[in-house]
């Protein structure tokens, strides 16, 4: 942490009158602030950040002397080392800016295996925080469970399914798998079939009950035991859920796709094929070829990833995968955010990714070609869309969900073609969303971005982008900070 970095951070807060996901202002004029454990926790649990003591967020973020730089450092050190679990090692930098004595404290993000960081006096459930914009929010029970299960190496796909019965599995498929394992792994030839199934994670080694992985991969009808684990496929007659077709229909097509993972993948792909239409391409020799409007290989990767990497924990087991086809896009929505140390910015790169459902991945690798592009699925989607001159797939991660969006076209701002109908539709859709945001702000000037996301059904990235555009157009104005301020509507 350099002094210039801290000064630039102060200037940013003063210019925009707000903190950020990585910047927090504290006064500490007369004494050590009564509450800053929440920010230490949230920075440790998200992407790290800097707390600048001596900045008054309630008075235009002006500088004011801290009460005592040395004692302030001691108090922060004591808080981090004795009151937080695990212990936090902050970095300090006292500076003098515009004649005022300030203290900058840098909190690094903890390794994933050490999260969550929490305030011991409140306990892990009430004392764990996460950073949302400029706000320190209590972690949800699901967020804490996700971190704790990762730390404990809980494998949800090995969870026994008591109602499942091995006799109801596809016996031919199970037999072929056992024979293949005996050839592929010579030591398995000396084991009983039951031991091979247990070692492979198809049945539980203690109870002999089929596991979730085994049920989803080998059962005749997995939904007999796991009715919620299916894919809901719909075709919306418009550009958002709730649009009504010419005949009053809410969906032009609607199907509940069930079966094993392989069967659900094929069923969902068949649904997409029959609903996205094709383009007729005629080459120089007059040969006609029908080409789907979207690259099916990219769609396959997105649905396969959803089936393989979704969260099968008790917190998300009631949620199903969604494939939504709109006039202008396809969305594949999977329960469960990013797993472990996976970061959004690393998807589709050479950065090594971790698998949430290791047993499902391993068995599919040994029996199918579904995971042949392991760890390269996102890159494959991007390349396939690029080959058809379509926009790069958009990826949004919100609390508990992972969404991949494939769009037909992009607005023509740089020479790329788009129909006038598409352009007008996108503009109208954007206006509707912006109007809804303004309406919500008028009803509740203190509304948070998280609440706007919940009430509109859109992800944080989409809402943040539209709020920024409304600010730039001087339609809305934020008075004060995100935490304590309010929205002012300047123009309708």
Describe this structure in words.
This protein has helices spanning 3-16, 37-45, 69-83, 123-127, 141-151, 171-184, 193-199, 212-218, 261-276, 296-309, 358-367, 377-387, 420-443, 449-456, 460-472, and strands at residues 23-26, 49-53, 55-56, 62-63, 84-85, 91-97, 100-107, 118-119, 129-132, 135-138, 231-235, 253-257, 278-282, 288-292, 321-325, 329-335, 394-398, 401-407, 476-479, 486-489. The protein has 492 residues and is of the alpha+beta class. The strands form seven sheets. Strands 12-11-15-16-18-17 form a six-stranded mixed β-sheet, covered by helices on one side. It has a four-stranded mixed β-sheet with strand order 1-2-7-6, sandwiched between helices. Strands 3-4 form a two-stranded antiparallel sheet. Strand 1 (23-26), helix 2 (37-45) and strand 2 form a beta-alpha-beta unit. The protein is globular, with a radius of gyration of 26 Å. The model is unreliable at 411-421 (pLDDT under 50).
């Amino acid at each position: 942490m350099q002094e210039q970095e801290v000064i630039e951070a102060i200037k940013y807060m003063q210019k925009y009158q707000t903190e950020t996901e990585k910047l927090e202002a504290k006064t500490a004029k007369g004494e050590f602030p009564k509450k800053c454990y929440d920010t230490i926790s949230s920075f440790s649990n998200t992407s790290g950040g800097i707390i600048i003591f001596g900045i008054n967020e309630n008075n235009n973020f002006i500088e004011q002397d801290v009460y005592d730089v040395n004692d302030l450092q001691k108090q922060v050190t004591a808080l981090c080392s004795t009151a937080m679990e695990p212990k936090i090692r902050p970095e300090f930098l006292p500076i003098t800016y515009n004649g005022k004595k300030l203290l900058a404290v840098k909190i690094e993000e903890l390794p994933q295996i050490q999260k969550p960081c929490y305030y011991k006096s409140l306990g892990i459930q009430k004392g764990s925080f996460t950073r949302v914009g400029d706000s320190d929010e209590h972690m949800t029970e699901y967020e804490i469970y996700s971190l704790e299960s990762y730390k404990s190496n809980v494998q949800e796909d090995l969870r026994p399914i008591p109602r499942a019965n091995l006799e109801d599995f596809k016996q031919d498929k199970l037999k072929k798998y056992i024979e293949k394992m005996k050839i592929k792994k010579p030591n398995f030839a000396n084991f009983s079939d039951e031991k091979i199934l247990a070692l492979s994670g198809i049945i539980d080694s203690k109870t002999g009950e089929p596991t979730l992985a085994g049920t989803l991969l080998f059962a005749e009808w997995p939904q007999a035991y796991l009715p919620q684990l299916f894919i809901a496929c719909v075709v919306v007659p418009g550009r958002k859920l709730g649009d009504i077709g010419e005949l009053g229909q809410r969906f032009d097509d609607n199907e509940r796709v069930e079966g094993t993972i392989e069967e659900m993948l094929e069923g969902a792909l068949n649904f997409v094929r029959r609903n996205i239409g094709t383009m007729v391409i005629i080459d120089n020799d007059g040969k006609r070829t029908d080409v789907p409007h979207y690259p099916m290989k990219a769609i396959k990767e997105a649905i396969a990833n959803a089936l393989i990497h979704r969260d099968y924990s008790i917190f998300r087991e009631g949620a199903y995968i969604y494939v939504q086809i709109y006039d202008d896009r396809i969305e594949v929505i999977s329960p469960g955010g990013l797993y472990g140390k996976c970061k959004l910015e690393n998807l589709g790169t050479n950065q090594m990714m971790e698998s949430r459902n290791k047993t499902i991945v391993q068995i599919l690798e040994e029996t199918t070609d579904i995971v042949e592009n392991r760890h390269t699925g996102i890159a494959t989607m991007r390349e396939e869309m690029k080959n058809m001159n379509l926009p790069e797939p958009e990826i949004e991660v919100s609390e508990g969900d992972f969404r991949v969006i494939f769009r037909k076209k992009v607005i023509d701002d740089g020479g790329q073609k788009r129909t006038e109908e598409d352009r007008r539709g996108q503009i109208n859709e954007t206006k509707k969303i912006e109007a809804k945001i303004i309406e919500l702000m008028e009803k509740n000037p203190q509304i948070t971005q998280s609440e706007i996301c919940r009430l509109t059904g859109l992800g944080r990235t989409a809402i943040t982008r539209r709020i920024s555009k409304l600010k730039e157009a001087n339609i809305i104005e934020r008075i004060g900070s995100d935490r304590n301020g309010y929205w002012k509507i300047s123009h309708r």
